[in-house]
């Protein structure tokens, strides 16, 4: 029985890997597709790709309170409340203010 559980686990992991590879080949994990709009400098801008949004976060043009919209959202939301964008916000250090 131990061997069959190992075999089942290995097959499940293989299927997961295969599905991820298929998704990548179909560009479903592509960060270059442009589908994100943002309010930057008081203006509606976009569409941006997720990669471009990440760059705007790094340069602090998009922050946690920046309003974002993408297809499927009923209304504009702050970036900190959007699941695929909010993790990137924590990758930017806060602005240093010398005392």
Descriptive account of the structure:
The protein has 99 residues and is an alpha+beta fold. The chain has 2 domains: 1-30; 34-89, Dna Ligase, domain 1, CATH 3.30.1490. The protein has 3 helices and 4 strands, in the order H-E-E-H-E-E-H. The chain has helices at 2-25, 50-58, 86-89; strands at residues 34-40, 43-49, 67-70, 77-78. Strands 2-1-3-4 form a 4-stranded antiparallel β-sheet. The longest helix is centred in the N-terminal third of the chain and has 24 residues, at 2-25. It is extended, with a radius of gyration of 19 Å. Residues 19-29 have low confidence and may be disordered.
Describe the sheet with the most strands. Answer: 4 strands, antiparallel
- Average pLDDT number: 80
As residue ranges, the low-confidence spans are 19-29
The radius of gyration computed from the alpha-carbon positions, rounded to a whole number of angstroms, is 19 Å
CATH topology of the largest domain: Dna Ligase, domain 1
Assigned CATH architecture of the largest domain: 2-Layer Sandwich
Distance from N terminus to C terminus (CA atoms, Å) equals: 66 Å
- How many domains make up the 3D coordinates? 2
Helix residue percentage: 25-40%
Question: What is the H/E string?
Answer: HEEHEEH
Which CATH C-level class of the largest domain is it? Answer: Alpha Beta
Strand content: 15-25%
Structure classification: alpha+beta
Strand order of the largest sheet: 2-1-3-4
Our count of helices gives: 3
Shape: extended
């Amino acid at each position: 029985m131990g061997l069959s559980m190992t075999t089942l686990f290995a097959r499940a992991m293989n299927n997961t890997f295969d599905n991820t590879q298929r998704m990548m080949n179909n560009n479903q994990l592509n960060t270059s597709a442009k589908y994100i709009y943002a309010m930057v400098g008081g203006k509606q801008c976009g569409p941006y790709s997720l990669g471009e949004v990440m760059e705007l976060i790094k340069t602090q043009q998009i922050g946690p309170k920046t309003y974002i919209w993408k297809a499927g959202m009923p209304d504009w939301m702050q970036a900190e409340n959007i699941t695929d964008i909010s993790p990137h916000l924590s990758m930017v250090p806060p602005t240093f203010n010398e005392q």
